[in-house]
Amino acid sequence: MPDATDDPAYAARLVKLQGARWKRYVPNPYRYFLRHLKLGRTLEVGCGVGRILGYLAPDAVGVDTNSTAVTHCRSLGFEAYSPAELEARNPAPFDSLVLAHVLEHLSRDGAVELLRSYLHYLRPNGRVVIICPQEKGYRSDPTHVQWHDLDALRAMACQLNLEPLQARSYPLPRFAGTWFVYNEFVLVASISGAVPI
């Protein structure tokens, strides 16, 4: 059975959420947060309909299993591929990987395997940024499969021989995750020994 996130209806839902009127008038803190990390050339795994690609353009490439989402990203002028297309292109190594709102759609084992399958795209000392929802955000999407808090994300990073550099609640303190849908866990890790942020 295909994954629910591969369905064209899922991509349409993301486009609708991203286009909400209030989002045009409220500054988005994630744009500034991600730019502050100075990620360099970035591969966004599970790029969806391009929200984060827009924050990191022109130094970002997206990959997603949802062909409708990839087509939408391209219509916005972003560089985005299916996993097979990306593999066929054999791109130069990336400075960073970003997985935002991806791992909660997978079991812990599935999340580890997904991460493992993309690490070869990273340059030595490259960084991995993982963003997962807290309680309210997790409950907001019926396609979510597994809750991953900071302890779980650190454990996955260590299992893959990644060194956690930063782990935090963002944009509000941890207690806000029970009522604020956009409060998230953020883990930044490195392949080896990068300078902490």
Give the total of beta strands: 7
Classify the fold: give the CATH topology.
Rossmann fold
Shape: globular
- CATH top level class name: Alpha Beta
CATH hierarchy: architecture: 3-Layer(aba) Sandwich
How many domains make up the 3D coordinates? 1
Fraction of residues in helices? 25-40%
Beta-strand residue fraction: 15-25%
What are its keywords?
197 residues; alpha/beta; Rossmann fold; 7 strands; 34% helix; globular
Give a short synopsis of this structure.
This protein has helices spanning 8-18, 29-36, 51-56, 67-75, 83-89, 108-118, 135-139, 150-159, and strands at 42-45, 60-63, 79-81, 94-100, 122-133, 163-170, 184-190.
Protein architecture, described:
With 197 residues, the chain is of the alpha/beta class. The chain has one domain (29-190): Vaccinia Virus protein VP39 (Rossmann fold). 34% of the residues lie in helices and 23% in strands. It has a seven-stranded mixed beta sheet.
